[in-house]
Design a protein that fits this description.
The complex is a heterodimer of chains A (563) and B (284). By secondary structure, chain A is of the alpha+beta class. Among the domains of chain A are: 75-284 and 298-323, Cytochrome Bc1 Complex, Chain C; 409-555, no CATH class. Chain A has helices at 4-28, 34-42, 54-58, 76-79, 82-101, 111-121, 125-152, 161-182, 188-201, 208-219, 226-258, 285-311, 336-344, 347-367, 379-399, 409-417, 449-465, 549-553, and strands at 68-70, 282-284, 437-439, 466-468, 476-477, 479-482, 488-491, 499-500, 503-512, 515-525, 533-544. In chain A, the strands form four sheets. A four-stranded antiparallel β-sheet of chain A has the order 3-9-10-11, with helices on one face. The N and C termini of chain A lie far apart (73 Å). The radius of gyration of chain B is 26 Å and the shape is elongated. Chain B is built from 15 helices and four strands. With 284 residues, chain B is mainly α. The mean pLDDT of chain B is 84. Chain B has two domains: 1-156, Cytochrome Bc1 Complex, Chain D, domain 2 (Orthogonal Bundle); 165-282, Cytochrome Bc1 Complex, Chain D, domain 2, CATH 1.10.760. In chain B, the strands form two sheets. A two-stranded antiparallel ribbon of chain B has the order 1-2. The relative contact order of chain B is 0.10. The chains are: A alpha+beta (563), B mainly alpha (284). Chains A and B meet through helix 6, helix 7, helix 12 and strand 11 of A and helix 1, helix 2, helix 3 and helix 7 of B.
Chain lengths: 563, 284
Amino acid sequence: MATFVEQVREMGIKQAVITKADEVVERVTAGMTINDIRSALRGDEPRRPNPRLRPHADGFWLHIRPSFYHTGVTHIYPTFRLGWMSTFMLVWETITGLILMVFYTPSPLVAYGNMWNILGNVPLGQLFRNMHRLGAEVMVLVVALHMLRTFVTGSYKKPRQFTWVTGMLLLLFTIFLSFSGYLLPWDQLAYWALTVFISGGAAAPAPDFVNNTILLILQGGPALGANGLLRWYLLHVLLLPLLAGIFFFVHYYKVVLYGISLPPGREEIGEDTAKRVPKDERSYFIPDILTNELMWSALLTLFLVAGALWLWDAPLESHADPVVTPLHVVAPWYLSWSQGWLKLADKTLVVAFIPLLLVAFIVMPYIEVGKSRRYADRRVGLTVAMLFIAFMLVSNWMGSPEFRVASSPDREVSIHMLPEEGPGGLKGIPFEHMTPGNYTPGQEIEGNPFLTRGLEEYEHAMHQQSCTLVGNEMWDECRVETLDSGAKRYSNSFTSDAMPDPFATLEIVEIQPNLKEMVLRYEVVNPENPNELLIDTSWTSFRHADSNYEEECQFLNKPCPID
Amino acid sequence: MQIKIAIGTIAFMMTMMVFGYSALREQARMERFANAELGRSIEAGAHIFASNCATCHGIDGTAQECYDTAGNQIACQGLPLNYNGLLCGEPSARLTEMGWKGSKAAYVESVVAVGRGAIMPTWSEQYGGPLRPDQVRNVTNFVLNWESEALCSQPLVTYEWPEAAEDFLASADVTPPGDPVRGEELYNVTYGCVACHGALDGSTAAAIGPALADIQDVGGTRVEGEDALQYVYHSILYPSDFISPECPTGPCAGPPSTMPANFGSRMGENPQDMADILAALLQP
């Protein structure tokens, strides 16, 4: 082989550079020259011997990818690209997660401050945090849908039972990955979701010392603290990604080994012809599958970046506080069903049932051995699956805040108007529009549409929790019930515990430069005894000029009075 | 296939445009968030202050108006915090007085964390108190947020105290003689002297400072050339000038004295308070 200098002497600089570039490209692609790439992109027939197979044979990156697919599985149906998307999400989470790791220390002393640093001090920090968090949710969704379609098309059947088992484990790892990341911001949302989850784990039907040991291992101490955070951090960034990575390769190896199953109608019952691909049914990886995957990657990236920027913001509540339990602790949506179950049955029963369910899912392909993958032959199985999905959706809804236990009517109004966490209600009013003074629900403030809108919301919230005995037009008529104890209970069409003819005010005081105090006060005179107050409470919240609740309001689906 | 390449390329370019768009607006976004952490920390600190600190330091931090849990007004036992001597200037007058070499924020944070004397409790869980480090920081940020131009433009000393008590009582600012009944109330409630010095009738023993039940007799013996009136008057204004020999826990510490040196400025807003307290302390 001539050296570059010799080549230049022989054929001139231009030709020598082209030849050299061609050589480099051929080495990098493990066998394809520039012309081969161009012809592949044009969709030409390959030359003989086919250079497009060499990256699979000689290159590292494509050695695990099949060089051709059955054309029957390259359309949207039956795969919906969900397997590829799951892989993409795993890579996506790894990349965004690595960037976030740079700005994070797993210690209760600084973790929460790190979040604010990412939001306010790291260029594109909020975008990356949003992309990572949004990606985590999308990944759970994609992996769950992937499992669902595998069930629906019967692809778990012989010979792919073990692929299904590894897939189940990957779904489990995905949920644990997403959930273990939940704790890391060390805010109230994270802390209490984890605490509830861990206490659930410790309610297993086992001897006390077993449960206590589980609790100790998961919390790293008598309560979730520095050790616990470090453990969950290491789970999140080390152990679970490692397990997910290993099982991903086992899973994918099986996928390649048995091939992607054809649509059920494409093959004879009881046969598996995925690997027997006739010449005219081949779709080559280069260029068809590769460009397809790159297109989906680009679309998914666009969706995730734009979604993280415009559609959704990762939540950040106040600093984790082991002594203050938030009024409503909510599990992430993908575990909301378990919270729903807790309302149906005893904790121990639920905790024992979940692993049983998991085992049932894992062994399902070994027990359900019906030969046919066709939908018409699997009416029972598909019906059971649909009922199960319906059951999960209802359970999820039952676990949602909509199905929560209501607290006292004045408190319900208060947490609607001035929630303990985040923006919402009156906190979303721009600071300069919070004019100090005393206000009543529904009051119209001239020249201050923000406050007017807030007070309108206040009236609306009061309306749901109030009723009238004296014909006040603001509230609905009271329905009165006498309880066994002799006390009266007042209700309206929204709630069974309403305030009869309440007197409510909002007071705004500037207590420090740039800090305003908002106090909601409620007074309800006992209709039975005019000298006695049935309710005499207040709810205080503070709002600093720089707190930036307005920005949060734009994203979260909360009634912020910003129009 | 060509259409897929086109779609993918367009999606990729759009992603880059979205990135570019957000990068262009990033500076402004970061600025909106820059002080958000501090703002929310102050909000959290306001909650902590209202439920833990206001009983001693006053609802507005001036140590003028304190309420117990039942809502009755009680003596403010703490020092004023919403006070220019503490918050204005770096170092502020208080820092100089205490010989503190660090920053104002560090001073407030360390006092909140560690506590001082028998009255100010330890708050940080690091030293056995109930608050986490972030909560100590929150309440510190809240206290420091009282610093404002309006506060700092007030003179530190609002009243020019005459050197001799006689001249003070004879001046036009007071109506002599002082009212001992009101004086005792000021002693017990408004200025909270009772917390350290015990009750004037002896019903509560002194805790830190010397007992003052018989100060009208012993006051004249402490400093040569000062009678009881002048001695008490002088000691309220400048506690470190003379350290009393006997405190309930042994010899009194100092100088500087453990007693706050800011009563002169607090009473300066209403000099009659001084006259009334003197009357209460010196009544036979």
